[in-house]
């Protein structure tokens, strides 16, 4: 086939935008074009391929099975095209240009305020775009090309990625200071009252790390998983509603300041999580990611 008849990157961008947003208007806004321009570009793509990719109705945008497959392939093609630019940037000054990093919510508020000022000072040509989201969404975004790298906590299965461990982050048990029973110097898993354990809601890997460290199935069954952020959980503990488990980085960042909450170490095997930076294997910006990982580790 002549290159003249190949789909254009712009057409593929329109297709992926529509797949992401499920709505022509929102997809057009995200692509910075009018809705008619986006719609015309997609019709040209369908005519070029000789297939229907999207079923259009007044209320619903529905991709055909082939449309789903082609949208997935288009996403990979766009990612490869972006990496052409990455290769050029990687040959120039380190940590310059745009870089998109996802950070999980149990890390972002505790490490970013420490690292961002020095990062701006040392690498003023870097434009770092941050996205706070749970591990599953962050890893999906990494493989789809929405994100360049992810700062998360291990163990977590993020697919085919390069992993750069940064540091271990111990887990501690936090409790109200006015609890009737005196607190031990360190909590053993059997010391934790499963009926009073407050944890982040499902989807946050910190909950899985903490429960795995305790190795008590009844904790998983009885714990109340209702917090949307560590700050919210700490407020519930401060109000005498129970106890929780916190990563050391949150304490170092002052999460317990102005509360009547104390924390003690968790005395158990593997009572920590490992903070790591991950990126797609064979990325042309690996040098940048390794340098960023070094800076993040130094900030700990």
Automatic annotation (TrEMBL):
Query: What sections of the sequence does the record tag as coiled-coil?
Result: none
Keyword terms: DNA-binding, Transcription, Transcription regulation
**Which GO molecular function annotations are given, in alphabetical order?**
DNA binding; DNA-binding transcription factor activity
One Pfam family for this entry, by name?
Answer: HTH_1
Q: Which family does it belong to?
A: Belongs to the LysR transcriptional regulatory family.
Question: Record's superkingdom?
Answer: Bacteria
| Stretches assigned to the HTH lysR-type domain | 7-64
Cross-referenced PANTHER family: TRANSCRIPTIONAL DUAL REGULATOR HCAR-RELATED (PTHR30346), TRANSCRIPTIONAL REGULATOR OF OXIDATIVE STRESS OXYR (PTHR30346:SF10)
Does the entry feature the keyword Transcription, yes or no? yes
> Can you cite an annotated GO cellular component?
protein-DNA complex
Return the protein name: LysR family transcriptional regulator
- Gene3D superfamilies of this UniProt entry? Periplasmic binding protein-like II (3.40.190.10), Winged helix-like DNA-binding domain superfamily/Winged helix DNA-binding domain (1.10.10.10)
- InterPro entries found in the cross-reference section: LysR_HTH_N, LysR_subst-bd, WH-like_DNA-bd_sf, WH_DNA-bd_sf
**Listed SUPFAM superfamilies:** Periplasmic binding protein-like II, Winged helix' DNA-binding domain
């Amino acid at each position: 086939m002549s290159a003249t008849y190949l789909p254009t990157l712009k057409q593929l961008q329109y297709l992926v935008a529509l797949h992401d947003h499920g709505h022509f208007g929102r997809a057009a806004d995200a692509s910075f074009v009018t809705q008619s321009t986006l719609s015309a570009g997609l019709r040209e793509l369908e005519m070029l391929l000789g297939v229907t990719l999207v079923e259009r109705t007044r209320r619903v945008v529905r991709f055909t099975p082939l449309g789903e497959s082609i949208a997935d392939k288009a996403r990979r093609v766009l990612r490869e095209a972006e990496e052409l630019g990455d290769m050029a940037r990687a040959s120039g000054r380190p940590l310059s240009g745009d870089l998109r990093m996802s950070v999980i919510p149990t890390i972002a508020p505790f490490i970013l305020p420490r690292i961002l000022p020095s990062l701006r000072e040392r690498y003023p040509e870097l434009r770092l775009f941050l996205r706070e989201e749970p591990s599953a969404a962050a890893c999906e975004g990494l493989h789809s090309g929405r994100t360049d790298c992810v700062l998360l906590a291990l163990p977590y299965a993020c697919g085919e990625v390069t992993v750069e461990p940064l540091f271990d982050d111990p887990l501690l048990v936090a409790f109200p200071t006015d609890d009737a029973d005196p607190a031990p110097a360190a909590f053993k898993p059997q010391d934790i009252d499963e009926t009073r354990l407050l944890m982040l809601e499902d989807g946050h890997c910190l909950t899985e790390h903490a429960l795995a460290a305790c190795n008590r199935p009844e904790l998983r069954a009885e714990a109340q998983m209702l917090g949307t952020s560590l700050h919210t959980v700490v407020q519930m503990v401060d109000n005498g509603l129970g106890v929780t488990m916190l990563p050391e980085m949150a304490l170092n960042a002052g999460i317990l300041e102005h509360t009547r909450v104390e924390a003690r170490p968790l005395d158990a095997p593997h009572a920590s999580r490992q903070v790591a930076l991950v990126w797609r294997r064979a990325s042309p910006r690996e040098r940048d990611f390794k340098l960023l990982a070094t800076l993040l580790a130094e900030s700990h």
